[in-house]
Amino acid sequence: MEMTVMNRQSKMFPLVLTFCVMFAFWMLLSAWTVYLLEPYNLFRVASRGVLAALIVSFLTYEIFVPSRDENMLLKIRRIIPYIGWELWQIYLATIDVTKRVLGILPIDPRIIEFDTTLRSDFALVTFANSITLTPGTITIDVDPAKGRYIVHALAKEPADSLTVDQTMQKKVGYVFMEE
Amino acid sequence: MLAIDVISTVFLAAGAFFMIIGTAGLLRFPDFYTRLHATGKCDTLGQILIIVGCMTYEGLSFITIKLFFVSAFYLLVGPTGTHALIKAAYATGLPVWKTGDKRM
C-alpha cells in the first residue's frame, strides 16, 4: 500500500543516493588507480560497476535510506563519541572475560530481564549489540513494543551494571534522543 | 621501518593472545551460554587487533582502507552471530548452568 502512496519524486532521491554511495564504494574497493594508467579501459571496466551498483541500489534503496529525520545530523554527531566509548568497553570486556577464563575471578551465570525507554529499531539494535560486546553479557531476546531485554550475564557485577547503574541505556538513549 | 615492524608485531601478538584465551574459555567453561561469552568476546577484540596490526604494517594504501571496512563489518556481524546462536539455544530450552551444578 505504501508504494502507491509514494510519489515519483520521493522514490527518486533515495535511489540516486544509494546508487552514488554504492558506486563510490565499488570504485574504492576495485583499486581505481588502475584506470589512471589505462584510461582507454575506463568505460569498459566502470560499466560493470555501474551495472552492479544499479542492481544493488534497486534492491536495497528502501532500507538503505532511512525516512526523513531532522535530527539525523545531531544523532550522527552524538554517535561518534559513543563508538569510542564502546571500543573502550570492548577492551574492558575482554580483560574481564580473560580473568574469568583463567580462573582469577569466579563465574556465576544468570539470566536477567529489564525494560528500557528505547523504541526505534536502530536504537534497539545498537543497544543489543552494545550489550553483547560489553563485560560478561549477551542479549538473548528483545521485545520492541516494551523495549524489554532478556540478557544472559556471566556473573553478578556485569548484570548489576545493566539493571542498577544503567550507564549504557542512558548513553544510547542520549544518542537516539529516546530518554 | 623498524618502528612500524615492532608496533604491528605487538598488535598481532596481542590479537593472537586474545584468540588463545577465547579458545581456552571454550574448553574451560561449563555450558553452551558461558562458552559463547568466551568465544564471542575474545574473538571480536582478537580479530580487530590482528586487523589493526596488518593496517599498521601496510601503511596508507587501498589495502588499509579495505581492512578498515573489514573490521567495521566485524563489529556489526560478530555480536549478531553470537546473538543468533544464543537465541536459538534459549528458544529450544537448553538449560542454563548455575553455580554448583555439574558440568554439561
Summarize the structure.
The complex is a heterodimer of chains A (179) and B (104). Chain A has 179 residues and is mainly alpha-helical. Chain A has helices spanning 2-5, 8-29, 33-37, 42-64, 72-101, 121-133, 156-165, 167-176; strands at 110-115, 137-143, 148-153.
Strand and helix order of chain A: HHHHHEHEEHH
- Helix % of chain A is 55-70%
Q: Level of helix content of chain B?
A: over 70%
Which whole number gives the mean pLDDT of chain B? 84
> Distance between termini of chain A?
32 Å
Strand order of the largest sheet of chain A: 1-3-2
Low-confidence stretches of chain A: 1-6
Query: How much β-strand is present in the residues of chain B?
Result: under 5%
Radius of gyration of chain A: 22 Å
Domains of chain A (count): 2
**Helix/strand class of chain B:** mainly alpha
> What oligomeric state do the depicted chains represent?
heterodimer
Strand content of chain A: 5-15%
Strand tally of chain B: 0
* Major sheet description of chain B: none
Number of H- or I-type helical stretches of chain B:
3
